[in-house]
Design brief:
The protein has nine helices and no strands. By secondary structure, it is an all-alpha fold. It folds into two domains: 1-45, Homeodomain-like (Arc Repressor Mutant, subunit A, Orthogonal Bundle); 51-186, Orthogonal Bundle (Tetracycline Repressor, domain 2), CATH 1.10.357. Helix 5 packs parallel to helix 8. The radius of gyration is 18 Å and the shape is elongated.
Length: 188
């Protein structure tokens, strides 16, 4: 992504997070980013394309991070542990991204369906790890699909707690508290 496109992209994420997608206009994105409207349209045909790029880029980062961490993990517990840490870090480092995704997933429109699908696809990854743990006897019997959404939503909420407390709580403190409860609850 070149410098101008990145500037547009970062400004759009910030405005979508603060004002909501519908309330952040192209004119405001160009004004705040200091980029001419023609430059914005050179890089993105529509505001919706900016949103789609945000969604795709964010979840690719999440997936790539999981892939890298999984290379060094053998057990389902180790893999779930890695997923939780990655989710916490993503929420903390990319708070605006997660705010846009979560807030837009709750509406009833095409954008919300895209967000729901991205979340669902990632939760399938978590579900597979939980099911692996159930199948190999590491975790208690349970509904792996339901538990995957519980892991995703609870991780998001827990990391938001850190943000609410003005980052006075470290990501690792949240992780230690959260993983202790989560893993203890799932383990046989």
């Amino acid at each position: 992504m070149n410098k101008t496109k990145r500037k547009i992209f970062k400004t759009a994420i910030k405005l979508f997070s603060e004002k909501g997608f519908d309330n952040a206009g192209i004119e405001e994105i160009t004004a705040v980013s200091g980029v001419a409207k023609g430059s914005l349209y050179y890089h993105f045909e529509t505001k919706e394309e900016i949103f789609d790029t945000l969604l795709d880029s964010g979840f690719k980062l999440l997936e790539n991070s999981v892939e890298i961490k999984f290379r060094h993990r053998e057990t389902a517990e180790e893999k779930l542990d890695a997923i939780v840490l990655i989710l916490i870090k993503i929420v903390v480092l990319y708070e605006e991204f997660m705010t846009v995704v979560i807030s837009n997933s709750l509406a009833k429109n095409e954008r919300s369906l895209k967000c729901q699908k991205a979340i669902s696809d990632f939760c399938k990854r978590i579900e597979a790890v939980i099911q692996e743990g159930i199948d190999n006897g590491e975790f208690k019997e349970g509904n792996a699909e339901s538990l995957s959404y519980l892991v995703f939503s609870t991780t998001y909420s827990t990391a938001m707690y850190r943000i609410k407390n003005n980052n006075e709580v470290t990501s690792f403190e949240i992780y230690d508290d959260y993983i202790g409860v989560l893993i203890k609850g799932l383990k046989k």
